[in-house]
Amino acid sequence: MKEVDPLALFRLSVLGPLVSRERLERGELQQLIGELSAREYAIPNSKRRHVGAKTIEAWYYAWRSRGLDGLVPKPRADRGASKIAAALQEAILAAKRANPRRSVRQIVRLLEAAGTVSAKTLSRSAVHRLLQQHGLSRCAAHQPEERRSFAAEFAGSIWYGDVMHGPRVPHKGQLRKAFLVSLFDDASRLVAHSAFCLGETALDVEGVLKQALLRRGVPLKLVVDNGAAYRAHTLQGICARLGIQLIFCRPYAPEGKGKLERWHRTVREQFLAELDERHIAGLEDLNARLWAWLEQVYHRSEHAGLAGMTPLARYQRDLGRIRTLGARATQLDALFHHRIARFVRKDGTASFLGRRFELPYELAGKTVRLVVDPHAQRVLGVEDDQGRRLGEATPLDEIGNAHRARRKSAGAAVDIAPRSAVNLVEIAHRQYHGLPNELPNDLSSKED
């Protein structure tokens, strides 16, 4: 399975409000593009926070034409170089520094009015790239962003994901802090799945997401923060393949996940406050009580924000609209497999988590991708960078290899025959010294 390009995943996340709509009314496309261009984004490998409307529009039509492949960036041949003359570059930079609020359009008009350039000969995109290279392309300040309370119309439309610091639990003779990883449905306040983990890594988040998908279907949108666990390419690839729009909240802006913050407060006040730690011998005991409390208490309690309905009843009201995994349920494990690049040693082995695995010997000296089940910590096979399967991966058995017959090269199994008496050196020697050029009978017969 080929890796999804991280920039393509980011572009898909920007296009989320467009691609998740079944149809757009007349004029609505440009309106949504304008709203998206006004937002701030955590752009990979960039200090910028905004994406232009024309860029978003180009991404949208590329996605409609070729899907996710259309969003894979193509490197510019002239990247890092400006075609603007050096003197004109200085004039552009001076105009921007003199008044940082000047837009690219204003700078072009100023230079045209001053006679520095002829009308309609200076490309605005070229000016923008020049300003960007010199760190002068920051946008002017915006008006304060308007915030309003909202609720999803149907269950399964929006899920929120977040992590809460939990209690310390015994683990292998030590006390370890537990972290509560939760996925929460906006419309019904139902917890799709939640579990205490010993970390807050991408692997922990993916484990909770997998169970949530099996239990509660596939959401249209998943809103998460900008933590490294949610930015992992593996999580983004899973969401892209399942058609889940992954939305990242802006840093230091928790207002967008108020319902999930309220859920965390409920956990502290109603679950952790009532927990008897004498019955908690490890993480398994803690989760067993969490899941029992969720199903027996939380999901069956009337909720003020649901006009007195319980989260479970509100969720069940929209069961007909929930997207199920369907036939994809049989492929779900494969969607959560990780691909890890490894160099194959000369002995045909590669390492994973401190263990060595034997691969097909013809892969020795090459870089391949190990297909692993990260939750079971098992290596399942080997692929190339195009996702084509190359064979199995088996744990190294050094003792067994001591008695295994080796495959030898074809040349090693053949006895070397005596060299022919006729060769270029002998012919030159006979001609130089005037000796008769006698050929063996078998070569003479071939010439007849």
Question: What would you note in describing this structure?
Answer:
The structure is a single chain. The chain is α+β, with helices and mostly antiparallel strands and 448 residues long. The protein has five domains: 6-71, no CATH class; 86-133; 158-329, 2-Layer Sandwich (Nucleotidyltransferase, domain 5); 337-399, Beta Barrel (OB fold (Dihydrolipoamide Acetyltransferase, E2P)), CATH 2.40.50; 418-448, no CATH class. Helices cover 35% and strands 16% of the residues. The strands form three sheets. It has a five-stranded mixed beta sheet, with helices on both faces. The protein has a four-stranded antiparallel beta sheet with strand order 6-9-10-11. The chain has a three-stranded antiparallel beta sheet with strand order 7-8-12, with no helix packed on it. A hairpin with a 2-residue loop joins strand 7 (349-352) and strand 8 (355-358). It is flat, with a radius of gyration of 32 Å. The two termini are 61 Å apart. Mean pLDDT is 83; it is low at 412-417 and 444-448.
Q: Percent range for helical residues?
A: 25-40%
Fourth CATH level, the homologous superfamily of the largest domain: Ribonuclease H-like superfamily/Ribonuclease H
* CATH hierarchy class name of the largest domain: Alpha Beta
The main sheet comes to:
5 strands, mixed
What is the CA–CA distance across the termini?
61 Å
Trace the largest sheet across and list its strands. Answer: 3-2-1-4-5
CATH architecture classification of the largest domain: 2-Layer Sandwich
CA radius of gyration is 32 Å
Structural class: alpha+beta
- The total of beta strands comes to 12
CATH topology of the largest domain: Nucleotidyltransferase, domain 5
Output mean pLDDT: 83
| Overall shape | flat
Content of β-strand: 15-25%
H/E element string?
HHHHHHHEEEHEHHEHHHHEEEEEEEHHH
Low-confidence stretches: 412-417, 444-448
| Total domain count | 5
Instruction: Tally the helices.
Output: 17
